[in-house]
């Protein structure tokens, strides 16, 4: 599970040293699968989940509101 705990640090331009110190213990780069929680802030604010299969280079997105509010317009190809 890749934590979004460090995203505010990234947003506010934390140094690489700080990011490495807070994330290196996870060793996420060694894992074949990453699970990424993603917050969708507007219009209603909810969380979606992206699973990344590193080996096959596939992304799988789960959005419980997908039928009510399609996300395709948010993706740039």
TrEMBL record:
Keywords of this entry: Hydrolase, Protease
Keyword Hydrolase belongs to the record: yes
Protein origin, superkingdom: Eukaryota
Name of the protein described by the UniProt record: Ubiquitin-like protease family profile domain-containing protein
Provenance organism: Pisolithus microcarpus 441
Signal peptide: none
Assigned protein family: Belongs to the peptidase C48 family.
Pfam families the record matches: Peptidase_C48
UniProt feature coiled coil, ranges: none
InterPro entries on file: Papain-like_cys_pep_sf, Peptidase_C48_C
Domain Ubiquitin-like protease family profile as annotated: residue spans: 25-70
GO BP of this protein: proteolysis
Cell cycle recorded as keyword: no
């Amino acid at each position: 599970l890749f934590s979004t705990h460090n995203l505010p640090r990234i947003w506010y331009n934390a140094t690489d040293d700080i990011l490495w110190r807070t994330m290196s213990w996870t060793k996420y780069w060694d894992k074949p699968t990453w699970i990424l929680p993603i917050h969708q802030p507007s219009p209603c604010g909810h969380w979606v989940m992206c699973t990344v299969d590193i080996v096959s280079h596939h992304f799988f997105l789960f959005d419980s509101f997908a039928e009510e509010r399609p996300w395709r317009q948010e993706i740039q190809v």
